[in-house]
Every structure is written in structure tokens, then in C-alpha cells.
Amino acid sequence: MIDRAFFGVDVVSLARRLVGITLLVDGVGGVIVETEAYHRYDDAAAHSARGVTPRTRVMFGPPGHLYVYRSYGLHWCMNVVGGTLPGCAVLLRAIQPTHAVGQMHERRGKVTSRLLCAGPGRLTQALGVNISHNGADLSLPPFTWIIPHRATAVIAGPRIGITKDVHHPWRFTLAGSSFVSRRVG
């Protein structure tokens, strides 16, 4: 079990440490294989870079809550609020489906297992996450976190899908995973 204190570490460290952990939402989910860190104070790509707005208010609250937003008006994205400073979050980019995979296929349609949760929009659709989850406490149901018993090999690289501060090596992937949205390198 993970409590909210788990999320109160430097956001870049948190993004790395989430890779390899299993996340379930109402029993549906899998192993986190790709994340990206966003840090308000030195990151123009962070939604919180301009300060508190109605949209970003959750990012300025305590660590261990979920920040959900609509991307390009098309799909939801889920972020773990964390860090030691306000305005920081980790975008969950991809998981390897392991629990209730049939339910994920019902939500996403006919797609390969590799593409079921590869990308932030696919991931939220498969898990059934939407704006109603915004601000939810990640240490309480419907969320379950399972920490692996062994160390996880993680690869760092530049973030993708953004136009500002692309140079930060704040995207983390599970080494060798074919379930990431795009390989590092």
C-alpha cells in the first residue's frame, strides 16, 4: 500500500520511481512503463508554469492526488501530483496491461494489447479515468498501488509531445518494454 507521503519526493525522482509499479483503478490496470515529470519552477511545458488557475489548482495542493485534464479537446490525461514544491506532477504515459484486460478492450475497442494503454489518452480510456477523478486522493479507492519486489531497470530520455523545454531528460521508461508509447533513443 502506498500512502500520500510516497508522492512527496522530488518530481523527477517520483517519475522514475513510479516506473515498474502496478496501478489499478477499480481493479483495472497494469505495470507503469512510461512517465514524464513536469516541474513548475523551471519547466515552461508544465501546466502550472503560469501559476494557479482553476484548471491547475489540484497541482498546487498536497502530493498524492490526481490531476486530470483534457488534451487537445480529445482525450483525458492523468497526472500524479507530487514533488517537494507546489505545481509539480508526473504524467502517466503508458502501462503494460495486466489486470482486467478484457474490460480495457471493451473500453478501447479492437486494438492490440501493445497499443491498449500506450499513450496518455489510450491509458485513461482503458482505465476509465476522466474528469470526475480530478483531485482524487491516490491513497484511497478506487486506486490500488502494488510495488514490485525487485528493482526495476529504467531508461531516461527527453519528453515527447511538447514544444517547450523538450531538452529535459524527464521521460522515464521501463527498460525493454514494448508497451511504451515511443521508445527512448
Would you write up a description of this structure?
It is a single chain. The protein contains four helices and eight strands, in the order αβββββαααβββ. It has a single domain, classed as Roll (3-methyladenine DNA Glycosylase, Chain A). 15% of the residues lie in helices and 29% in strands. The longest helix has 8 residues, at 11-18. The model has no long low-confidence stretch (mean pLDDT 87). Strands 1, 2, 3, 4, 5, 6, 7 and 8 form an eight-stranded antiparallel beta sheet that branches. With 185 residues, the chain is α+β, with helices and mostly antiparallel strands.
Number of helices: 4
Question: Which structural class best describes the helix and strand composition?
Answer: alpha+beta
**Proportion of residues in helical segments:** 10-25%
Supply the number of structural domains: 1
So what's the overall shape? globular
Main β-sheet: number of strands, strand sense, barrel status? 8 strands, antiparallel
What's the architecture, going by CATH?
A: Roll
Total strand segments? 8
Low-confidence stretches: none
What distance separates the N and C termini? 33 Å
CATH topology: 3-methyladenine DNA Glycosylase, Chain A
CATH uppermost class? Alpha Beta
Order of helices and strands: HEEEEEHHHEEE
Strand fraction equals: 25-35%
- The Cα radius of gyration reads 15 Å
Overall pLDDT: 87
Write the CATH homologous superfamily.
Methylpurine-DNA glycosylase (MPG)
